[in-house]
Amino acid sequence: MQHCYDVIRDHVNKGIGVEFLLKKLGIKREESIAFGDGMNDREMLKSAGEGFAMGNAHPDLFQYAKHKTTAVTNSGIFNGLKSLGLLK
């Protein structure tokens, strides 16, 4: 069985990074989209206007995402963007 661990500081996470970039680039939160599949993505999904948990995501991650899409290996990002009407 494989194990994976993330070592993350209390005030350093992907959500902080997203918020920093949105502010720096002058993009409204509501205009941002994030996709994630690991528990280290939870703050990022909450920080983005539209947060997608991939179908292959850690089961505990789904509660932090606004949307669920298919697995990353099953065109998850494409299907997520399609569900928002951004792709046909």
From TrEMBL:
Under SUPFAM superfamilies, the record lists: HAD-like
Q: Which UniProt keywords apply?
A: Hydrolase
Note the InterPro entries from the entry. Answer: HAD-like_sf, HAD-SF_hydro_IIB, HAD_sf
What GO cellular component is one of the record's annotations? cytosol
UniProt GO molecular function: magnesium ion binding; phosphatase activity
Pfam families, A to Z? Hydrolase_3 (PF08282)
Cell cycle among the record's keywords? Answer: no
Q: Which domain of life is it from?
A: Bacteria
Q: Please report the name of this protein according to its UniProt entry.
A: Hydrolase
